[in-house]
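Figure 2 data, in text form.
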Amino acid sequence: MLESIQHTAAYIKNRIGDFEPEVGIILGTGLGGLVNEITVEKQLMYSNIPDFPISTLEFHSGKLIFGTLAGKKVVAMQGRLHYYEGYNMQQITFPVRVMKMLGIKTLLVSNASGALNKTFKKGDLMVISDHINLQPHNPLVGRNEEELGPRFPDMSEPYRLELIDKALDIAAANNITCHKGVYVAVSGPNLETRAEYKFLRIIGGDAVGMSTVPEVIVANHMGLPVFAISVLTDEGFPDTLKPVSVEEIIKVAQDAEPNMTLILKELIAGL
């Protein structure tokens, strides 16, 4: 795996020249609009990058965007990978390892998720303070490459507390409704049943989604500080549960995206 990561990073470095990103960004479902705020210097299609997995979802573009955002050099994944697409965890997290090899010092992650906490509402934002991993596999299973990180990485602060506090301050200063909570990662692709939503809330979840945690585990393994934020696109409240479509989820994500973008831009500016 190490050789593959190094080979891919070398290919990308050859394509982007002396551009060295400071911040890595992973954009979730319906949240690709942040790239419109980036002064783009280079774009690479996943399909043209050696060993790079290709997003199979029609609403995920599948591009690496290199440029400047809020005065910082960034690399953004416009289109992420999911376990339910059939990829293994090493493939899903491969881009994070490559971005670290390219020089990033901080990883920012966004996603669309369902609210479990009844005090939250559809369209609100939630800064992730911790997570519960219910996905069936772990990206660190297998032989450990000491060059990438330790065999047993600590996860006592998977999301950097300093960045959480800054983001909440930014949201408050701009009158943006933004909660702090625990994200539960499930495999998908189906949404949850009433009983499952109830279970996820009982075990401490404030929101549920199908991504993010594998990338966060790998980032922590490699010593990368992480910040993650969710757009709450639907409400998983068993007593009032209603059918929801992917189109509705994407629409809510896109409507809430300007607020998320503002928070991320100001957070990046302060790094």
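Caption note: Residues 2-269 form a domain with the Rossmann fold fold (CATH 3.40.50.1580).
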